[in-house]
Description:
Elements: H1 2-11, E1 22-24, E2 30-33, E3 39-43, E4 46-47, H2 58-69, H3 76-83, H4 89-100, E5 108-112, E6 128-133, H5 136-146, E7 152-156, E8 169-175, H6 183-196, E9 197-208, H7 212-220, E10 230-231, E11 234-235, H8 241-248, E12 256-263, H9 280-289, H10 291-297, E13 300-307
Parallel strand pairs: 5-6, 5-8, 6-7, 8-9
Antiparallel strand pairs: 1-2, 2-3, 3-4, 9-13, 10-11, 12-13
Amino acid sequence: MLKALERAIENVFVCPVCKGQLVLEEVVSYVRCTCCQRAYSINDGIPVFLRGELVAQEEERQFRDVLADEYIRSDPQTLLGVVARHHCIPVMRKHAEEFRAKFKPNEWLLDVGIGYGWHWAGQGVGAKIIGVDMSLGNLILARHLLGEQDDVVLVCADAAALPIRESAISGVWSVQMFQHLPKGIFHIVQRELNRVLRDEFVMEICNLNPACLHKVIYCLFGREFHRQGKLGNMELNRLSAIELIDVWRPFRNGYSKISHDYSELFFHPDFNFRPRRYPLQLEHALATHFPKLAALFARQVHVRIERLKDYENNACVSEDLNCWSPTGSLDEKEKPYEDTSN
């Protein structure tokens, strides 16, 4: 773990305030910025870069820390059981493995809102992972779950003030994190990702889908279906594929290819429906060949944003690509957005 942290400090991490170079002190209890001299503590091998920036999400952060503290003495299998209440592990691990395998071992991926880190447990193929979360409690559980894996570096930080140098990241993975961001914070995080990503990149963002099936069932039982806004201790925004694409369309001035997919079609914890043997092949077939049908009951929607190699040539205004160009020959109002990924 220490070697992985040392590599990250040398190649990726910077001071989140001044973007200065960091050094790991010999006592290995904190890292220090050589520019502004700020010191950041290290807890259980996890650098803590939070400095009171989370005013808009402080209630959520405290809630997640308290929740994580309940499982601090739990073994990995118990932690996976907790995760399985809210996420379909077989589905999402498969997606994570496929995403990671697209990158070279010397590249760095950023998992924004890594939580308990369960996506990467037992993996070892592909790029190195930097897992960012605002909850130190979550990250301590992730450390317990990941064990001695040295290919995942955990960092407690604000996604709106990433301790990462410019153009250091090749890909971004995020599962149900952006749905909890207030609108103003959402756009700040997008700017940070724009700063840390390389010219060519891939991002995969997963969000809860406002499935028609869910709306109908909630209505039948006389319950309110929460779509967007504050819910309890946190923000929760369910976005359709088109809505999610719209908020990511302007990224990097629009010169990106955007596609979408669906997952967790048969996993609905809201209704205590969690199949013991998940029909992975059936889900893949439905999501691939019948996306409009899948959208009606899929719990989760994925959006993939990729930077095109020939973006300078305005190639992304082509009708066969899922993208939009602010300087292309077609006006956005004249040509409505069409996603042809399926």
